[in-house]
Amino acid sequence: MAPVAPPARTEGPTPLFGAYGIVKRFGDFTANDGVDLEIRAGEIHALLGENGAGKSTLMKILYGLLEPTEGVVTHRGDVVRLANPEAARALGIGMVFQHFSLCENLTVSENIALVMPKGLNGRTLKERIGAVGAAYGLQLDPDRPVWSLSAGERQRIEIIRCLLQDPKLVILDEPTSVLTPGEAELLFTVLERLRDEGRALLYISHRLDEVRRLCARATILRGGRVVGACDPRAETARSLAAMMVGVQVGEVKPPSGVPAGPERLVLSGLALPAPGLHGTTLDGVSLSVRGGEIVGIAGIAGNGQAELFDALSGEALAPEPGMVRFDRVDSGRLGITARRRNGAGFVPEERNGHGAAPTLSLSDNAILSRHATADLSRFGFLRRAAAKALARAVIDAFDVRKAGPDPAAGTLSGGNLQKYLMGREILAEPGILVVNQPTWGVDALAAAHIRQALLDLAARGAAVLVISQDLDELFEIAGRIAVLHDGTLSPAVPAAETTRETLGLLMGGATPPVAGAPDPTRAILAPENLAPEAAHAH
Q1: Which of 50, 178, 330, 356 has a Cα-to-Cα distance from 438 of 20 to 30 A?
Q2: Which Pfam families match (predicted)?
Q3: By residue range, what is the domain housing residue 378?
């Protein structure tokens, strides 16, 4: 690309970083189309857009993972070439990825050492990891292998790795998508401290209340183009969502008059030792989910959610067959293929490598998950054509944005891959569906669509179990909610009879309230028990 003079910019101080006229094409597909963006020191700037709007492509250009087809990037007004992430980091650009760029078989400190200057390793690096973790409340054992960590703990690695580089610009791609409300609050404190230190932060999130709280400016992309800018603090979450997708986002509506069906998913004293040295032991987990209902499981990352999902999907076998029952069939010793044959569906938390094989096409990924089920196996040698038809049906029904008719799963943005995986399972009409983090990284319109699809599936008689760290999501769709803490599951209680505060206490290890006893959190928050000024606010 020939040298280009810095373009004219907006009035005011010289931006710390700028992107002007950015075009990025992948064959015939244009991901960014003439994008302008200015990022100033001492601000948290939101980049908003629906899935497939071009946000991730622009971020990869700013971090040196991609070079623009056209346009320039500037640093303090001078045009720079970000040929690779090393060049970006040398200018003070750090990135916290939505999809974790971690090596599973390496430890925490070994992963961090991969991007640190030579010579910073061993004990010195571990001490710095400990110091940053203590300073920001992001404690991690530097000797633990990544494969043993929860998604929330992996997110901590990304953040610490970025902070150790003393960045001037921090790019955050859906940073709270795997965090609990308490963990997110801690992150917000960290981000505000970085802003106050004079650093710039570029914040991508579909959680619009977070954007309204943190960001003073927002640039909005749609279809790869900038369609607007605003001060998020002057907007509502609904108005921001409408700017992103171009239409008003409707509310999720639970179907009315759905009768309770028979118990379809039953866990009876499920006990499972922790996998390896690190992990969570499941301790006597009992739960039932009836046809026609959605039961939600809340909890802080790393408290057994992954182990419970594996036990439900058949990736980890229970000690006794009767500990897991699907439609009255003892299934605890059955593998995932047998459970799928019996009408169950599963969507894991980690999209790439677990939910989908990133290098395979969308249709091949459909074969991987449903090769033994009746809807594909009956086609015999025509199975591949059937899988392509299935992939097209999912793409159409869940508005999956992609480049090409049947691209590799890894080429989709995180939110679009999530839509595909959810659609792949829901369109199979499973009698039992187990989902871990159903709307991780998807935009407001897609989240509403997925949640409505789950409600509609339950209304058709399915038993749906949703594991989610998003309490708002669980209150929106679940009839009953339980909390998983340190491998122990609390009783599932009607969502209408509990509160976020009560669930938060259980997530922190409080003892579940006795049935029929007053809710202690409601008593604590009662006006007569608060200071006068707090009671007035309450």
Answers
A1: 330
A2: ABC_tran
A3: 344-428
CA atoms within 13 A on the CB side of 532: 0
Query: pTM of the predicted model, to two decimals?
Result: 0.69
Q: Quick one: 52 and 140 in the same domain?
A: yes
Report DSSP letters for 60-129, one per residue: HHHTTSS--SEEEEEETTEEE---SHHHHHHTTEEEE-SS----TTSBHHHHHHTTSPTT--HHHHHHHH
Q: Which of 428, 463, 488 is the last residue of a domain?
A: 428
Whole-number Å distance between alpha carbons of 478 and 294: 5
CA–CA dist 272, 440 (Å, integer)? 27
Residue holding tokens 């990825």? 97
Tokens of 163: 């902070």
Q: Identify any residues that bridge with 481 across adjacent strands, giving them in sequence order.
A: 296, 493
In the block, tokens 């935009």 appear at 443
Name the nearest CA neighbour of 278 among 304, 308, 313: 304
Grouping H, G, I as helix, E, B as strand and the rest as coil, residue 465 is strand
DSSP letters spanning 338-375: HHHHTTEEEE-S-TBTTTB-TTSBHHHHHHHHHTTSHH
- Amino acid identity of residue 127, one-letter, is E
Cα(325)–Cα(353) distance, integer angstroms:
27
In a domain, 536, yes or no: no
**Sign of the four-CA dihedral 526, 527, 528, 531:** positive
CA of residue 515 relative to chain centroid, distance = 33
Statement to judge: residues 269 and 161 lie in one domain = no
Tell me the per-residue pLDDT of 39-54, one tens digit each, with 9 for 90 and over. Answer: 999 999 999 998 778 9
How many domains in the chain? Answer: 3
Distance, in Å, from the CA atom of 411 to the CA atom of 416, rounded to the nearest integer, reads 10
Q: Whats the size of the chain, residue-wise?
A: 538
Q: Which stretches of the chain drop beneath a pLDDT of 50?
A: 1-6, 381, 519-538
* CB 139, CB 97: distance < 8 Å: no
3-state secondary structure of 310: helix
Tokens found for residue 76:
């303090």
- pLDDT, residue 528, reads 42
- The number of angstroms, rounded, from the C-alpha of 66 to the middle of its chain's C-alpha atoms is 23
Q: Which residue has the tokens 């994008």?
A: 35
Are 29 and 127 part of one and the same domain? yes
Angle in degrees, CA 60, 24, 227, rounded to 5: 90
* Kind and range of the H or E run holding 503: helix 500-507
The answer for residues whose C-beta is within 8 angstroms of residue 39's C-beta and 6 or more apart is 15, 16, 17, 18, 45, 169, 200, 202
What is the SS3 string spanning 401-452? CCCCCCCEHHHCCHHHHHHHHHHHHHCCCCCEEEEECCCCCCCHHHHHHHHH
